Amino acid sequence: MVNDKNKLMPVLIGIHLVALPLYSRMPVPVLLLVAILTLWAVLIISGRLSQPKQIIRLLLAAVIVSLLIVSYGSIFGQGPGTSMLLLLSFSKLFEMKSKRDAIVVVFMGYFLIASNFFHTQDPWVAVYVFAVVIYLTSLLIIFSDRLGSMDFKSRLRVSGKMILQATPLMLILFILFPRINGPLWALPDDAQAAKTGISDEMSPGSINRLISSGAVAFRVQFEAEPPSHENLYWRGLVLSHYDGEKWTRDDAPSRARPDVVYEDEKSDIIKYTVTLESHGRSWLYSLEKMIGYDQKYRVTRELQLFADNKINDVIIYKMQSDLHAVNHGLFLPELRKNLALPVNINQRTKKLATQLKAGGNDVQFIDTVLQYFRNQEFFYTLSPPLLGRHAMDDFLFETRRGFCEHYASAFVHLMRAGGVAARVVVGYQGGTINPVDDYMIIRQSDAHAWTEVWLKDRGWVRVDPTAAVSPERIEQGIQNAGLELARLPSILSSNNFVFLKIRYHWDSFHHSWNQWVVGFDEKKQKELFSRLGVEDINASTLVTWLVIAMSVCGGLVALWVFRRRADGPKDRTRYYYDMFCNKLAKAGLGRKPYEGSREYLARITMLFPVVDEKAEMIISYYQDLRYGDASDVELKQKFVRCVKQFKVKSINKDNVLLQR
Amino acid sequence: MFAAGAIKSFFRLPDFTKRPVFKFIAKRIGPFDGTVVLDKNRVYILPTKFGIIFGVLLLLLLLGSVNYSKSLGFMLTFLLAGLGNIVMFASWRNLAGLRLRAGGCTPVFAGDEAIFAVQLENLDPQIRYSIAISQDGHEYEVVDVPADGLALLHFQVTTNKRGMLNAGRFRLYTEFPTGLFVAWTWIELSMQCLVYPKPAAKADEVFSTTIDDGEHDYRGAGLEEYTGLRKYQAGDSWRRIAWKAVARSGEIYTKEFAGGQPQLQWIEWQALAMSGMENRLSMMTRLVIDAEEAGCQYGLRLPALEIAPAHGYSHCGRCLKVLALYGE
């Protein structure tokens, strides 16, 4: 029934349109199979190959499943599930026997397109999905336009129109549909999700790599004035273990709560909301030092903030920080951990530490080391030379060129060698205000590494050795640190005013999108209604409102759909003449299809003398309008009035018969 | 078991494609004289099985969106839900507001298919696509009705006895634009088809006719002997046109025959040596057809009714009509 290539090719194209954004995340074997299946489908649709036999289809299914298991390790989960659905819809094209198969493929398309949202919910994805939905709907039109009289363009027009008409309903539902919090069933951690931004390991080059990316890490809306640039330390992770090559997280974190003390003066507390882009990891960023956070997250003793799941979506959270809060906590095991160094390597560094310490106290020692960085020939650069097995020795005595991870690493190493507990902190430093909406953008290029040193009476104190080498980096941001501009993202290096303006406007739009679309949950719903003056909205009121709004909107849509043209039916004279005939028809005296007005009148007069005068008048008006001057408005009005007033008393059929 | 059967029949939906399901619908069906506009309360709508699958798909999407807290998932779900809603209206609108008129129907012989035509008039400036007609669950034709235009839909009814055949109610329906919903109406227009008696098997011999003595020697009424050509006159049988002469001269000539067989034939009820009214009518129908084909002048004699001898298409029709309606 459906072996028409004019119908099946668009379906094939439709599947590809649906899957296009997914391809970049699929393993190569799956992509290869997609290519093979496409080619095969084209050959079948164009009639060069016949539909495969049952046994081949079974084999194909087996190939698909085993391929998925080989490339993903499982057929469950988002990645393999999506690929499976995609491959199945391709193979469905092989056995198209009826309209049903094609429509099922289109439905699979509606479902598959949603899997794009697992990866990103950016505005462009929304636009793309919207467009593809229009296309998929036009495929449904192909199969209901049974004579095939619509061309591609008119199908798209019709489906576009319907989707547009559906948009108000979508908005109403989106705003008013009660949101249920949390997952209904446990979510498997998706191993395929993209990881971006700072990782939980730091080795030479790991921060450096991020600098050329202008991608947004998170955006921050401060409730009051933002702190000055040199105080903008966005804490991510604390790395306290060094194996001579890379810094890693503590593998046995303490379950104890942090020991933070802060001045209880409200003026010092900075309140802000972070809108974090998905980064595929579970930690969150906060301004140092956090003192208040959302209870659904977990805070560690090192003042790291964690979510229960990996962050694969934009999330919004409120934070409170105090720049001067003090983190006192240091247990003995922690002290030991933060003094540990790999043995037998970097001996020169250790010797240097002993020299610099030279009997002074811890604070003096820190100053001496920073002085050392400042006064010796150290350079802050994006292209540091490679380091050997004794990485610290190489850096401190040979290359002396490094990026923040080199300085942080070397500084902590020196501290520990000098007997001072110290650790590396990774996160972001700085941020640019978007002048359009006055929020702060923190990009990947703001990635940074700094250190913390434990002092007996002051707790963990932040020391940023990069500031000793390149104070501009900390005070004015990465773009002013004298680095190679060509390696920085264009948004930072560009001087083009128009370009920047467009970028900022776009970013501002993106930020609002994240706030009001992507992050629209129960809380936002409440916030929206309280802004509109409705406090304490709950699910049942929402449903009531939803029903009301849907009815109103549905009514409007119905009116639009059922609208007649402005002047009513095209031929008003005809319309009212029919009305007249129908009134008579109720009395058993309908006009026969072959009867002209004259013959009809003759029959009326003969059979039904009671109404003949009025009927005669109406019919003569009708004849005048029809065969005389049709533009005579007065006559038309008279005609219409007469027809409307015309009444037939229900007449006895026997009477009519008698008269006949 | 009791349960299985009861549940099965409980869940089996009434088949609205074959007959109207509810009584109130049956009341509105007609038959209607003249024109009928398919107004609001005459067009019904239900989701098709694809519509139901679509609904299930929406539920799955909604569940997924809730579970993964994907706002855009919600949006897609709601957009598709809105689409379903719009499509419902659009399918309904594709049928509602059409004006129907009964079309003509050519008489047929009993046993043949009577073909009825229904004229659809679109009063709107939009084309109405893919409107189909069916009767007793059998689909006959699909048309598009042009904007402000007309289209014809035909359906067939098998005839089995002579007389006037009512077209009966039929179903107009459309699944346009998406196949998710089907909008339909049941309607009956006053359409009748004249059904002639089924002609008897070709007569072996002429035993039922009275042969006129042939007082008046018609030129051209005989069959046996070719006498020449004359100009074509309306009513001459096409079988006797001299096509060669036509080809030569460009004018139409009729061959003339003379003598031999009877020139005037009476087809008589009384003369038929068979029993049963229907059998006789059937035989007479056969004789009328044969006489007409043979180019004879023929007349019809039935109890209490007589049709004077004549010849030609309309005469033949008159005779057959009398036979069709005899006794009704």
Summarize the main sheet of chain A: 6 strands, antiparallel
| Separation of the first and last Cα atoms of chain A | 56 Å
**Count of DSSP-assigned helices of chain A:** 23
Largest interface: A-B, 70 and 57 residues
Relative helix content of chain A: 40-55%
Can you describe this structure?
The complex is a heterodimer of chains A (660) and B (328). Chain A is an alpha+beta fold. Chain A folds into three domains: 5-176, no CATH class; 201-493, no CATH class; 572-659, no CATH class. Chain A is built from 23 helices and 21 strands. In chain A, the strands form six sheets. Chain A has a six-stranded antiparallel β-sheet with strand order 10-13-7-2-19-18, covered by helices on one side. Chain A has a five-stranded antiparallel β-sheet with strand order 9-3-17-20-21, with helices on one face. In chain A, strands 1-5-4 form a three-stranded antiparallel β-sheet, with no helix packed on it. In chain A, α1 (5-23) runs antiparallel to α6 (123-144) and α2 (28-45) packs parallel to α4. The longest helix of chain A is centred in the N-terminal third of the chain and has 25 residues, at 152-176. With 328 residues, chain B is an alpha+beta fold. Chain B has two domains: 14-195, no CATH class; 209-325, no CATH class. Chains A and B meet through α5, α6, α7, α18 and α19 of A and α3, α4, β6 and β7 of B.
Describe the SSE topology.
The complex is a heterodimer of chains A (660) and B (328).
Chain A: H1 5-23, H2 28-45, H3 54-72, H4 78-92, H5 99-114, H6 123-144, H7 152-176, E1 201-202, E2 216-222, E3 233-239, E4 241-242, E5 247-248, E6 260-261, E7 269-276, E8 283-284, E9 286-287, E10 290-293, E11 298-299, E12 305-306, E13 315-322, E14 326-327, H8 332-337, H9 347-357, H10 362-375, E15 379-380, H11 391-399, E16 401-402, H12 404-417, E17 422-429, E18 432-434, E19 439-443, E20 447-455, E21 459-463, H13 465-469, H14 471-476, H15 490-493, H16 497-518, H17 522-531, H18 539-562, H19 572-586, H20 597-607, H21 612-627, H22 633-645, H23 653-659
Parallel strand pairs in A: 15-16
Antiparallel strand pairs in A: 1-5, 2-7, 2-19, 3-9, 3-17, 4-5, 6-14, 7-13, 8-12, 10-13, 11-12, 17-20, 18-19, 20-21
Helix pairs in contact in A: 1-2, 1-5, 1-6, 2-4, 3-4, 4-5, 5-6, 6-7, 7-18, 9-12, 19-22, 20-21, 21-22
Chain B: H1 2-11, H2 23-27, E1 35-37, E2 44-47, H3 49-68, H4 71-95, E3 99-102, E4 108-109, E5 113-121, E6 128-135, E7 138-145, E8 150-158, E9 163-166, E10 170-174, E11 181-187, E12 192-196, E13 209-211, E14 225-231, H5 243-249, E15 253-258, E16 264-268, H6 277-294, E17 297-302, E18 305-310, H7 313-325
Parallel strand pairs in B: 4-12, 16-17
Antiparallel strand pairs in B: 1-3, 2-11, 3-5, 5-8, 6-7, 6-10, 9-12, 10-11, 13-16, 14-15, 17-18
